[in-house]
Amino acid sequence: MGASGYVTVQHDNGTPYLLTGGYSGNTVEPENTEELKAYLPADEPYVIRISRHLTGEGEIEVNSDKTLIGTNDTAHIQGMMVSIADVRNVIIRNVTFSKVVTMDAMELNGARNIWIDRCEFFTDRDHD
Q1: pLDDT tens digit string along 32-47?
Q2: Global pTM value
Q3: Could you state, in order of their start, the residue ranges of all structural domains in the chain?
Q4: Is residue 113 a contact partner of residue 91, using CB atoms and an 8 Å limit?
């Protein structure tokens, strides 16, 4: 499999930095929310392909060197905040995020070299 996406960005000191996400790691396809919550915070690089509507609660932390890519129109994370904090080299593409009730759908704090492309974020105004 070729690179799902990459971009060259300029590092703080002017040196180009190749943003590859999890390209150097294994490609995985989580079957459920628990597997997604295991792959995203892992220390190893991963290309994580999702084609399902995954529902849960709480927060999912993302570690460095990850690619999260939706493979079809049903790639959807519902009810869980994705936290990208103090990490680098993360790509998120073609994923819908929705109905995170008590927090933001995604949080970026101290993260560098992050590429978010073709994602959709929404919620409802009537929470059960």
Answers
A1: 999 999 999 999 999 9
A2: 0.85
A3: 21-122
A4: no
